[in-house]
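thought: fold this chain, then report.
action: predict
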Amino acid sequence: MLNENNTRISHVFLKSQINYHKEIAPFARRPLTTLLIESSQKIFGFKTGYAFILVNFLLLGCSGVLVYKLSRVLKASKTYGLVNMMVFFTSFSVLFAFFPPVFTYDEPLQYCFLLLALIAFVRHKWLWYVILFTLALVARETSMLLLPALILFLPSTENYPGKNIFSNFKKYAPLILLPIFFYGCYVVFFIYHQKLLHATHIEMASRYSCFLENIESVKNGVESVVSIFITLGPLLYFSYFYLKRKNKHQWQNKFVFAFLLTVAINTPIVILTAFARESRLFALPLLFVWPMFMQLFGSDLTYLRNKNGYNNFLKNWRIILVFIGITFANILFCFIYYPQLGLGENTYFAAYLFSTILLLTTHYCLYKSTSKDQLL
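observation:
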C-alpha cells in the first residue's frame, strides 16, 4: 500500500497498481482481488487506498484464522494452534506484506482459498477441495506448485507412504489433475475472450529478464539471497534439526518433506521468472509448515527456554566466541551494509533480519551447549 518513496498510504499509487493488474496480461487473468477491491469501492464509497486496506487486511486476517483452523483439524491443541497463527503473522512475507519491495496483492486471497482447500483435503471433502483449489489457481496460478507435494498426503499413504504413493496417485489422480483442468479451461477462455494472446506471448518471452536483473549486480545478488533467507531460512533451519531426530512421527514427516519439495520447485522458478526481492514469492511452501509449526518444531524451541542451557552456554568460552563473532558480523551486515541496498529507512527490514539471525544463532549455541538429558 506504499510506493517506493513514501511511507504513507498513496491512493494514486494504489489506483495505478489496480489498473496495472487489470491491463497487464499475467495479472489480468487474476481478477478476483481486483474485483473485491472495486466492489468494496462501489458498495461503501471508499477511496482506492481504503478499499485496498479493507479487502487485503481482512483476507490476511482470515488467512491467520484459517491457519489456526487447519492446525486444529490436524489435531493441534488450542495453544499450539494460536502459536502457529502467531508464527504466520510474524513471518516476514506477512508482517511486511504491504511494504516495498514485497508489494503483496493477490496472496491474501490465494492463502484463504489454499488453506480452505487443504482443510477440505484433510477432511476428504473432495468436491469442495476441487472447487477451492481451482479458485486458488484463479487467484494466483502459482498455487499449482503445491500439487506435487499433495501427492504425499493422498489417502492410504498414512502407514506406508513409499510403498503406496504411486498406486494411490493412479487412483486419486483426478484430485490432483481436476483443478489444473478447470483452471486451464478458464485461462484459455479468458485469454481469447480478452484478446490477450499476443500480450501473453510477449510476457512469457520477457520473463528471463527478471533473472538477469536478480543477478546483474552485487547489490541485486545480495538482495536476492537475503530475500530467500529472510523468508525461508528460519523454517529450513528448524527443518534440518527436525530431520536429525531419531524418533519422528511418520505423518509429521510428510509436512516437512512437502515443505522441502515445494521449496525445491518454487525457489528456482521464482529466481528465473520473477523479481527475487519480492520475498512473498518464496513464501508459498510455508503453507505446509505454518499450521504444523509447534507440532514439528516445538521440542526444538525448548532449548531457548532451558535455564541449564544458558548456564552451560556462559561457561563454554568457545561457544561464546562463536556467538560474539556471528553477532558482530550480523550487526555489520544488517545495520551497515544491508541498508545500502536501497531499502527505505522506515521499513525495519534490517531490524527484522538482525533479530532473525540473532534468534537462530542463540538457538544453535544453546543446542551445542545443552545435552538432551538437561532438557528433561
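thought: worth noting. The chain is about 70% helix and 0% strand.
final: C-alpha cells above.
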